Please model this.
Amino acid sequence: MRFYRLSPAPGFAEAWAKNSFRAYGYADPKICCGVHRRRTYPLQICWAFGSARLADLQPVSIDGVICTEAVAATIQARTVAVDAGEVQVLLREVCQPHLEDSDDLEQIMPSPYQGPTLKELMSEHYVDLVESRSTFEVSSTCPHCGRTWFKALGTEEVEFDESGNFNPRRRKPGFGLFVSHPEVGERAAFRIHGFEYLFFTETFKNLSEEKGWQGSLFLEMGELK
Model:
C-alpha cells in the first residue's frame, strides 16, 4: 500500500501556522533532546496569501493539516485513529509581520475569519523507517544533542509555474520511504520518526477522492510493506 503527504493545491487560501512543529523546533519524542520548546495547542493559523477561497483539506507549515469541521467528521467516521484538534484563526494584525513577502494581501481571507469551523488532523502514532530499503538524507541536525531530521529522496514532488499551473515529478521506481505495514496497522494517518510530515495512507486518499475534497495534492512518498 502506498502512502502520501499533502501539498497545497493552487487557487486556495494558504495558511501559516504560528505554533507548528516547524515553528517550535523538534517535537518527535524519539529524537527530541528536550532543549527545544514543544508545540502548543490549539493550532494557531494566519491566512497568508493566495486567495479567499477556502480549501476542504490543506497542509499548513509542512507538518500540520487542517480541514473544515464537516470534513473532519467524515474522516473520523470513515477511518481509524485520526484525531481532530481545535484550530484558532488569528487576526491579521497578529500575522502581518510574517506576511511581508506576500504581494497580494488584499486577496487573503477576511479578518476576522467568519468561515466554517476548522479542525487540525492529528496523529501521534510514530513508526520507524525501514532504513535499508528507503532513500533519504540528513536534512538538519539538532545543535544541542546532535539528533537529526531527514529528507526523503526520489519521492513525488510538484513544481508550479508563474501561472499557477503545476507539473508533478513522479516518484522514482524503487525510491522513497518504506515502513512496516503492521506498525501502521489500519490507521489512516501516521508519522515517521525523523520526518516532519503527517503521512496518509491510500485508504485516506481514496476517501478524499470519493468525497471530492479540494485544496490538496497527494504526493506519493513510499510504501507500507
User: Anything to note?
Assistant: Confidence is low (pLDDT under 50) at residues 23-31.
